[in-house]
Amino acid sequence: MEAEEVIICRCEDVTLKDILKVIAEGGTTVNEVKRFSRAGMGLCQGKICCRLISQVVAARTGRSLARIEPPTSRPPVRPIPIGIMADLTE
Ligand code: FES
After folding, report:
1. Per-residue model confidence (pLDDT) at position 82
2. How far apart are CA 46 and CA 86, in angstroms?
């Protein structure tokens, strides 16, 4: 196995090679890598992989890890019964 075949995002099966491709095509932020590779969009919502993605982005863009912005966080939305919303108005 080549180093670039290492899986960075286990939830979405995104490899280091996939992430490097996004960066080579102009991606400079974790959000851009996320958007174009789906890394960080899996079940864990990036809890496992976003730190690794940040490290790759920092190394490839020549910035320190402290200057890499964390990805936009969107907690999962779950449907709730309408009755709960109705109770909120009373
Ligand atoms: S490991 Fe990347 S979203 Fe879960």
Report:
1. 85
2. 34
